[in-house]
Amino acid sequence: MVNIRSNPNDEEKLKSRATEISAFYSNKGRMPSFSEIGQLFGFKSKNAVFRLVNRLEKLGVLGRDEKGRLLPGRIMTAPLKVLGTVEAGFPSPAEEELSDTMSLDKFLIQNPSATFVLKVSGDSMSGAGILPGDMVLVDKGQTPKSGDIVIAEVDGQWTMKYLKKRGEQVVLLPANPAYKPIRPKTELKISGVVTAVIRKYK
Amino acid sequence: MVNIRSNPNDEEKLKSRATEISAFYSNKGRMPSFSEIGQLFGFKSKNAVFRLVNRLEKLGVLGRDEKGRLLPGRIMTAPLKVLGTVEAGFPSPAEEELSDTMSLDKFLIQNPSATFVLKVSGDSMSGAGILPGDMVLVDKGQTPKSGDIVIAEVDGQWTMKYLKKRGEQVVLLPANPAYKPIRPKTELKISGVVTAVIRKYK
DNA sequence: CTTGACTGTGAACATTCGTTCAATATAGAA
DNA sequence: TTCTATATTGAACGAATGTTCACAGTCAAG
Questions:
Q1: Ramachandran region of residue A84, left (φ > 0), alpha (ψ -120 to 50) or beta?
Q2: Which of B69, B193, B201 sits opposite A196 (nearest CB)?
Q3: Which domain, by its residues, includes B56?
């Protein structure tokens, strides 16, 4: 007797169907119902879908709510593969299959309601790899520590600088030697901490 | 007669409820059912939810499928507010309300299945604001043009460099003067174009 | 006070959901 | 061929869905 379950052809088909369901989720923003999955693959019976879903669940690519609703499994949450370093080289297809996926949103944003995006103008932080035109994620809920990059209002002017604390003294330090450190005279209002930098090329 | 609808107190309450629904969506990966919304706000009748949802729909913060299912409106798709530039200053609450939101995933990734993440090691591109430890999004489907930053295999070594074409000649240019340009002798395999850079501080 | 607008309750409704069962079709092994 | 296991169909089921209606409570305006 031959164990038909481990037919490699079957697994491929399953994977491709999981991918289609994933596409539905990212397009529509919700998981398809059983009838819709059936429609997607040409099934005329919901029971065929029922079995398909069960197998995908056992493979771990599909999940369920505590209420029994379908959830996008780990493959679905975000179509982004995280791989090794640049020098480690380009990933082989085998590595790709094994690697985990993640969502940029969840990875970069801890505090959604307190986070927003600012576009960078000026090159005062170019020494820290923050160039004009970049986007920075700013969390206005975090308490700034020494060494953080902060968005601050000094004497009526808005800037992005390194925050350095030396005892009671607070200094705003640019990362470009062409600019001078700022020692606030009257007031210093720090309204956010830069948590991430994003540069888009295309 | 006074138009009660424009009561500012009401709008605040509505906004906060929209935020709670948004939180449900980003936590669970799906929209809550009417009963669940009712449970969320202490409603004992689904009709109360029905009317709440209708008002949120008219405000545009909630949407519907072609099948009538609830969809996360523009506020929901990604809890990320895009605002002005650094020097324009910190956004006032009024601006926040007006601004659009977006998803980092959708913003940065055009081709999900062909895109993945590499971690940067080495400082050969530090002149372009790409530092060791940064993450780069790589699209292996795009055809590289001159001026693009590419991931390439030269003589058995993997690197990330600027790609420059001069006629037939192809040169890989680092963005750090400490490194020398690379003129591939035997073979040059370009396997992806860097479409974005991400640096996470916390 | 009364009136009117708004909000929430509670019960009904048709529809769709996911699930289960028996029956049929298909394909490979013996 | 026959046997056996899997795949799909089709019909049924209870539970949950979103929607609608009539009714009661609240609060401000007149």
A1: beta
A2: B201
A3: 4-77
Pair A182, A116 in one domain:
yes
φ/ψ region of B122 (left if φ > 0, alpha if ψ in -120 to 50, else beta) reads left
Same domain, B129 and B194: yes
* Cross-strand pairs, B136: B118, B197
Per-residue pLDDT of chain B (202 residues; tens, 9 = 90+): 443 344 445 566 777 788 788 778 877 878 899 999 999 899 999 999 999 999 888 877 787 877 767 777 554 344 455 555 555 444 444 344 434 445 677 778 777 667 778 888 888 899 999 999 898 888 888 889 999 999 888 777 788 999 998 877 888 999 988 888 988 777 778 888 999 999 999 7
Q: Are residues B137 and B185 in the same domain?
A: yes
Calculate the angstrom distance between C1' of D17 and CA of A73: 24
Query: Quick one: which residue's CA is nearest to D4's C1'?
Result: A1
Kindly determine whether residue A83 and residue B118, on different chains, have CB atoms separated by under 8 Å: yes
Q: Is the CB of A58 under 7 A from strand D?
A: no
Q: Are residues A49 and A122 in the same domain?
A: no
**CA–C1' A38–D6 (A):** 19
Select from A39, A92, A111, A118 the residue whose CB has the most chain B CBs within 10 Å, as the one to mutate to test that interface: A118
3-state SS class at B175: coil
